[in-house]
Amino acid sequence: MKNILITGGAGFIGSNLTQKLVEKGFKVTVLDNLSKQIHGMNQNSTLYSSIKDIATFIKGDVCDKSDWQKALRNQDAVIHLAAETGTGQSMYEISRYNEVNILGTTHLLDILANENHSVKKIIIASSRSIYGEGKYLCKNDGVVYPNQRQDIDLAKGEFNLICDKCSEPLQLLSTDENSNIHPSSIYGITKQQQEQMILLMGKTLNIPAVALRYQNVYGPGQSLSNPYTGILSIFSTRLLNGNDIDIYEDGQESRDFVFIDDVVNATILALEKKEANHQVFNVGSGVATSVSEVANLLKSLYGSDVKISVSGKYRLGDIRHNYADLSKIRNTLGFSPKYDFQKGISEFVEWVKTQEIKEDKYDKSVEELKLKGLIK
């Protein structure tokens, strides 16, 4: 396979993946709409600049079937990254998330099912969000997958999960690929549907398909101006603007932060290895890091004196914990993350320090969520 189409190839993951594949001798075509939320009003971001001269670039939209038809010509594989992302925003921009993530994917599958093409492999960027809450151990009931936390409990400051059967406290476990799928956001639901459609039609059409359930991807190059991109960017932008940080819940909620280079390497393994065909893999660091730990480490690395407070506020649809079990991708594809969080966040901060300080749009995004009743 030599010709690779990457949708969303000018985005954070896509541009890094494009550069690495070109280095390896692949011919890459990028289909991207240069969303203003990611690439700015003039759509001439550093991300786009990094790939525009090394790949065939098609400015187009996955919601437009004719753009897909143009981009798919002579392609051996498709890496489908283009999507609307962000759990909070998905809870009120429901039509847009469904249109881009689900309808956009159906155009690809419709062409593969009904038109001539040369595609021999599909990789879909899935997400840890499809799991909802992760995997836990109850001393009475064994392994359990707790339901979404309830507003009534969160309002009382009861953030930790208890067993749905016996109400005992739960012990966090790493989430493997056989864990329950029960997304707690519209974004998670759309990613689940994308994954299911790609895997089903891959088998039906005899086109090897792979779903990669990315955890929280971060690193140099991610958007610092988009308030929906994740806490590393949000906290960095606030710190550099001298704005205090308000941590939700009790600050002990955690995520699996995976460095961009590790994500790129895992994706290329999935592309190149036959053992990946028709499989689902977690892509993460395999380590849970609390939000308080992230905020305090960033404050230290930036040498900032802003105030970090833990407010007890909460956002409906947020999960408490989820970190990846990497046994399957390690054993099947030989993937092992090279970056621990300390090393990765240090590289991220050194890169941020070279960037122009961006306007802090976080408060505006919070107001939007409050108006919709999603932040309490």
Give an account of the 3D structure:
The protein is α/β, with parallel strands linked by helices and 376 residues long. The chain has one domain: 3-Layer(aba) Sandwich (Rossmann fold), CATH 3.40.50.720. 38% of the residues lie in helices and 17% in strands. The strands form 5 sheets. It has a 7-stranded parallel β-sheet with strand order 3-2-1-4-5-9-14, with helices on both faces. A 3-stranded antiparallel β-sheet has the order 7-6-8, with no helix packed on it. Helix 1 links the parallel strand 1 (3-7) and strand 2 (27-32). Helix 1 (12-23) packs across helix 10, helix 6 runs parallel beside helix 8 (186-204) and helix 9 (231-240) packs parallel to helix 11 (291-302). The radius of gyration is 20 Å and the shape is globular. It starts with a strand and ends in a 5-residue tail after the last helix. The model has no long low-confidence stretch (mean pLDDT 93).
Brief write-up:
It is built from 14 helices and 16 strands.
Please give a handful of descriptors for the protein shown.
7-stranded parallel beta sheet, alpha/beta, 17% strand, 376 residues, 14 helices, Rossmann fold, globular
In the CATH hierarchy, the architecture is 3-Layer(aba) Sandwich
Shape: globular
Report the uncertain regions.
none
| Overall strand count | 16
Query: C-alpha Rg, in Å?
Result: 20 Å
Number of helices: 14
Element order: H for helix, E for strand: EHEHHEHEHHEEEHEHEEHEEEHEEHEHHH
- What class, by secondary structure content? alpha/beta
Give the terminus-to-terminus CA distance: 50 Å
Overall domain count: 1
On the 0 to 100 scale, the average pLDDT is 93
Strand content: 15-25%
The CATH topology is given as Rossmann fold
Strand arrangement in the largest pleated sheet: 3-2-1-4-5-9-14
Going by CATH, the homologous superfamily would be: NAD(P)-binding Rossmann-like Domain
Main sheet makeup: 7 strands, parallel
CATH classification, class level:
Alpha Beta
